[in-house]
Amino acid sequence: MGKIIVMTSGKGGVGKTTSSAAFATGLALRGFKTVVIDFDVGLRNLDLIMGCERRVVFDFINVINGEAKLSQALIKDKRIDNLSILPTSQTRDKDALTREGVEKVLNELSKDFDYIVCDSPAGIERGALMALYFADHAVIVTNPEVSSVRDSDRILGVLASRSRRAEQGLEPVTQQLLLTRYDPERVERGEMLKVDDVLEILAIPLLGVIPESQAVLRASNVGMPVILDEASNAGQAYLDAVSRFLGEDVEHRFVTPQKKGLFSRLLRRSA
Amino acid sequence: MSIFSFFRSAPRASAVQAKERLQIVMAHERAGRTGPDYLPMLQQELLAVIAKYIDIDQNKVEVKLDRGGDCSTLELNIELPAREAAAKALKESAKLAVAGNRPAAKDGDESDPVKLAAGGALTNGGVKKRR
């Protein structure tokens, strides 16, 4: 049985799709059969981030409606063997996501895959509720910023009350925090919430800290999950997060400002 | 960073304010998440009790909730109608009681506000606690 992971946040633009793409790719790199599903019906973007936008024929909604077979809608990643993408519809709306339909697709996927990563849309309406409903594990993607932290707390409340596990009185959905767009230099200047501040407020375990990085935009430009840019700090931070998810004890990097040499300091000053 | 910034007293870091604001607002949001909104009910029941003994005007009632860090204050302001001599006596004593913190009521006022302030811990401020 595959494990269902939801990437959720409440707030938009914090890095759910970037993180879903990176995380799913990371799990596949570690040898697990992984599929990543776009739940943002009408605002499809996971395909672009994964670089498979030109290979979309059928989608998640077609499968739910019985218009296509799951095998026809799944796109196999060209770079990594164990990785598949299930894109969503660009034209329909979120009402197309029925609980029964989503359950049927997830059940079928969990026979073949070790991990099913659900990329949630922003908000707490149908799309987001469907993405988290069947989850076994939730990765809460949060920026060190007041509105994002508050919305994350709201989503934690929704997970605790409106997920399948909550409704059926099963073991609660496990939760981990992924703090993205972290800028250690601004933190040091007292302009940004510290990792510890966010942890204290949300009170869930830390999966990883992804530093603010130019590599993220570069990767999305070319349709490559940023985790494949192994030279970048964001790529390395995602690799670490995947290792931690798999139970390895990895020290957190990129949480303090990197020491600069005198030369680069002088250059920066004059720039 | 100029050399002058070295001499200026550092302003209070904005991140510290962010954390404090979040802790306060979220303590209340979490407390409110678990139960139904009890304030309207509480107001109705309190008024019903007072109305049993005193004839009050439902429109001259003010309920305020002030949310603080680890304690909230529920403030109930009810205007009591002033009638007869007994009411006048009450009015005088009430005036004395409140003279310290509000401007003296004008003579000939039809009513006199009596403040019933119930300060209590409505929430326990347990920021880390998740219910």
From TrEMBL, chain A:
Lineage of the species this protein comes from: Bacteria, Pseudomonadati, Pseudomonadota, Alphaproteobacteria, Acetobacterales
Gene Ontology CC terms: cytoplasmic side of plasma membrane; cytosol
Domain AAA: 3-154
Protein name: Septum site-determining protein MinD
Function: ATPase required for the correct placement of the division site. Cell division inhibitors MinC and MinD act in concert to form an inhibitor capable of blocking formation of the polar Z ring septums. Rapidly oscillates between the poles of the cell to destabilize FtsZ filaments that have formed before they mature into polar Z rings.
Highest rank taxon of the organism: Bacteria
Entry-linked NCBIfam families: minD_bact
Sample GO molecular function, one term: ATP hydrolysis activity
Keywords assigned: ATP-binding, Cell cycle, Cell division, Nucleotide-binding, Septation
One biological process term in Gene Ontology: division septum assembly
Stored InterPro entries: AAA_dom, MinD, MinD_FleN, P-loop_NTPase, ParA/MinD_ATPase
Family that this chain belongs to: Belongs to the ParA family. MinD subfamily.
Residues noted as binding ATP in the record, renumbered to the chain: 11-18
Subunit structure: Interacts with MinC and FtsZ.
TrEMBL record, chain B:
Top-rank lineage group of the source organism: Bacteria
InterPro entries linked to this entry: MinE, MinE_sf
Keywords, comma-separated and alphabetical: Cell cycle, Cell division
Ribosomal protein recorded as keyword: no
SUPFAM superfamilies: Cell division protein MinE topological specificity domain (SSF55229)
Similarity comment: Belongs to the MinE family.
Protein name, as recorded: Cell division topological specificity factor
Originating species: Azospirillum brasilense
Source lineage: Bacteria, Pseudomonadati, Pseudomonadota, Alphaproteobacteria, Rhodospirillales
